[in-house]
Amino acid sequence: MSKLKIESVSVVCEYPDVFPKELPGLPPIREVKFAIELLQELSDRGFARPIFSPWGAPVLFVKKKDGSMRLCIDYRQLNKVTIKNKYPLPRFDDLFDQFERSNTVIKD
């Protein structure tokens, strides 16, 4: 296997302040195979299906410290298009303060 010197890549020569002098080595092993197998399993069991909705959110699996996988959903793009409440809901403590001053509370 021949080694490619980082100095021989043209983009590195053009922008030397962006790239390190030495490459740190190979990137870490990714669990792509596991993710693909898991996706197929979830699809076969009816838990997952492909969608093409503008209201969808990307789903990721992130490895936890104990080695198991955590399901993470990225709602940032969906939150950007969500219409916010113009009038926020009242806080419970404010409502209780109002009830405290009243003599009669009627329940329908």
TrEMBL record:
InterPro entries noted in UniProt: DNA/RNA_pol_sf, RTL1-rel
Tree of life domain: Eukaryota
Gene3D superfamilies (UniProt xref): HIV Type 1 Reverse Transcriptase, subunit A, domain 1 (3.10.10.10)
The protein's name in its UniProt record: DNA/RNA polymerases superfamily protein
Native source organism of the sequence: Gossypium australe
